[in-house]
Amino acid sequence: MPRFVAFLGSINVGSNKLLMDDLRHVLRYEDFDDVETVAASGNVLFTHPECPSEGLAEKMAWIIHDEFDIESFVAVRTRAEVEAIIAENPFGPDKDNGGEEKFVHTIFLEGTPGEHQVKALIMDHEGRGQERIAAGTNALHVDYVDGVGRSNLTGDFIERRLGLRGTARNMRSLKRVVSKLEELEQADG
């Protein structure tokens, strides 16, 4: 069976507390197999019978809402898709003029923003901070040069400008997820 990673938004933020043990337990009873989590921020590795990623994202979001009463955006990707998103990020530490792994983020989006939406976001943010922004494949790449905690470029600001929900992970987290997926796939043989 194919192996996937789900990036959950709005988990363990504010009042949306969710123990990863509880999440793993529930998902195992809903046709998600080999369920593992990476960090408590909502990175779920799993296998599932062949199904479009969008269908799996909707299913997982529904389960989280039904079982835990948490509205969560879920982005499901394969290892190859996560590796591609890391490679396309123009701000990665391995790129010329790249940023620090902990400050360089990919925001997984529920769709692809139009070029005009990204330009409007960049213009609306101009003068508000030093962040660098670039469009990606169903994603937005951001270098939070001075750190996320100090930034005015919040998830809400981005979602309102793009009209798309999303969830962010920094480069360090993405590499950790890919490494764990590689490890599991090698163990699968």
UniProtKB/TrEMBL annotation:
It comes from the Bacteria. SUPFAM superfamilies: SP0830-like. Gene3D superfamilies: SP0830-like domains. InterPro entries: DUF1697. This is DUF1697 domain-containing protein.
